[in-house]
Design brief:
Two copies of one chain form a homodimer. With about 140 residues, chain A is α+β, with helices and mostly antiparallel strands. The first copy, chain A, has five helices and five strands, in the order ααααβββββα. In chain A, strand 1 and strand 2 form a beta hairpin. In chain A, helix 2 crosses helix 3 and helix 3 crosses helix 4. At the A-B interface, strand 5 of A face strand 5 of B. Strand 5 of chain A pairs antiparallel with strand 5 of chain B. Chain A binds a DNA duplex (30 and 30 nucleotides) through helix 4.
DNA sequence: TTATTATTTTAGATTAATTCTAAATTTTAA
DNA sequence: TTAAAATTTAGAATTAATCTAAAATAATAA
C-alpha cells in the first residue's frame, strides 16, 4: 500500500472524505514535523501546482483538529501551528531563534491533576525561553 | 499604606514608572482574577471616566509581561488573556461555558522535564474540555 | 444513463485582535 | 525655564482567521 492509500485509510477511519486537498494537507503534515502554520502549508502545497485555496487550508485544518487527527499549537498568540502528533507532549519555543522543540513527557505527567468530573479533550504544555544552542552562542 | 501606594511600590520594584494608566491596569488585574482580555480591561477602566486608550492598554500589558509581573494566557488563538498570578499553574477552559479555571499544580510538576542547558522564561499548561458543571447539566 | 442531492472547494470580502505611526502630552533633568 | 526623555494617544495599518454565496465535484436515486 503506497503513501496516498495509507493516508486515505487514516482519513476514512476517522470519517473524513479523502479529497485531493485533504490528502495533500495530511501528507504535508506527516512529512513536515516542524509545526507549520496554515500559510506555510498553503504555500508549500501550491509550490508546483495551484491545487488548493487558503479557505480550504483553514477549513481542513479545523476539520482535522475536530476529528483529532492533528493538534493545534497556540504557543504564540499571533498564529496557530499544526502538529501531526496528537499524543500529549510539550513544546518549547526559543525566543531567540524561534525554533519550536518537542518535549517528551512521562505518560503519568498529568496524573497529579485533580480533575474529577471534568472531561479532558486536549492538553498542551508550552514553555518559552532560550534554547541550548542559543544559550551557548 | 493604601492600595495605590502598594501598587506603586510593586511597579517601582520592577523598574516600571508608576503612571496613572499603569496603576489602573495593574489594580484592575489584581481585583479581577477572571483572566480578562485587553478589551475587557480597556472597557472597565474607562467605564466611569475615559482615562486610557486602547494602545496604552496593549503597550502596558506587553510591558508587564516582559517585566514578568503578570502573565499572558494564549489558550485560545483568538485573543490573549491576562493573569495577575505569575506563579506556574494550569488553566482549564470549558468549551461549553467558556469558563477559564485555574489548576493548582504540585511544585515539582515540571521536574521530570529534561531541559538541561535550556533557560525557561515561562511555562503554561492548558487543558480544554467540558467542566464539571456543564457535564452534570 | 440522467437527474437530484449533498459535499467540498473557492475567491474575495469581512472581521477583529494587535501593532504601528507620528504627534501630543507629561515627566524628569539640567 | 528649557531641553530631553518617557508616556500616552487617535486612528491607520496589518494580518490571521472567518464568512459568504457561488461554483465545482462527488454521491445517490430514479
Amino acid at each position: 500500500m503506497n503513501k496516498t492509500e495509507q493516508i486515505k485509510k487514516i482519513l476514512l477511519n476517522n470519517k473524513i472524505q479523502p479529497s485531493l486537498q485533504r490528502i495533500k494537507i495530511y501528507e504535508f503534515l506527516l512529512g513536515n514535523k516542524t509545526h507549520p502554520t496554515a500559510d506555510i502549508i498553503y504555500n508549500n502545497i501550491n509550490k508546483e501546482l495551484a491545487i488548493i485555496s487558503k479557505a480550504t487550508v483553514y477549513n481542513t485544518l479545523k476539520l482535522f483538529v475536530e476529528k483529532n487527527i492533528i493538534s493545534e499549537i497556540t504557543i504564540d498568540n499571533t498564529e496557530s501551528r499544526y502538529d501531526y502528533n496528537t499524543k500529549f507532549h510539550g513544546h518549547f519555543k526559543c525566543e531567540k531563534c524561534n525554533t519550536l522543540y518537542d518535549l517528551d513527557l512521562k505518560s503519568d505527567f498529568l496524573n497529579s491533576l485533580n480533575l474529577n468530573g471534568f472531561k479532558i479533550n486536549n492538553s498542551h504544555l508550552y514553555i518559552k525561553g532560550i534554547c541550548k544552542k542559543c544559550n551557548s552562542n
